[in-house]
Amino acid sequence: MEMSKISFMQSTTLPNLLTFARIALVPVVVTLFYFDKPLSNWIAASIFIIACVTDYLDGYFARALKQTTQFGSFLDPVADKLLVAATLLMLVGVGRIQGLSLIPAVIILCREILVSSLREFLAELRVALPVTRLAKWKTALQMGALTFLIIEHIPGVSLPIEQIGLVGLWIAAFLTLRTGYDYLQAGLRHM
């Protein structure tokens, strides 16, 4: 009984609650793709941005409050992957990512699966695979690009929002390959 109480208490830290919130926002973002545009695009983009901010805040508070937990270390990347994968799939489904632009989407999804599998394998060996600074930049660029793609366009503004999002997606895919290679190299040393 006492062990389960400690386990529950560890899972309800502020950083973990922020991660749970990010996961809870994923179906909200997905659902908004089915509503009238452009208002639903703006609401979806706003909620997506809030979810992205929780990604930063959960790590910040975990370190600042010394509340890093194994559960949080597991759940945080899962929440990130759910948010990115669901958003990419919805953008493909509504046709905002199509043709050659499917390539960076596939690269991003494949890298996420590869790195998750690698982390799981290394966890069994009790080897940590820390997030690199370049991977953090990749994540920020990727989330920015996805935000632009969710918005799609701003009525009355000639700024090519969707094209900015697609260029950002290609750059994020390049960084995804680079960081995926770095993680693979680090992981191969332990195999």
Task: Provide an overview of this structure.
The structure is a single chain. The chain has 191 residues and is mainly alpha-helical. Helix content is 78%, strand content 0%. It has a single domain (2-188), classed as Four Helix Bundle (Hemerythrin (Met), subunit A). It contains seven helices and no strands. Helix 3 runs antiparallel to helix 4 and helix 4 (70-93) packs antiparallel against helix 5 (102-124). The model has no long low-confidence stretch (mean pLDDT 88).
Number of helices: 7
CATH hierarchy: architecture = Up-down Bundle
Q: What is the total tally of β strands?
A: 0
Low-confidence stretches: none
H-E order: HHHHHHH
Main beta sheet, described?
none
CATH topology: Four Helix Bundle (Hemerythrin (Met), subunit A)
Share of residues in strands = under 5%
Q: So what's the overall shape?
A: globular
Arithmetic mean of pLDDT: 88
Name of the CATH first level:
Mainly Alpha
Give the number of domains.
1
Helix content: over 70%
- As a whole number of angstroms, the C-alpha radius of gyration is 18 Å
- Alpha carbon gap, first and last residue: 38 Å
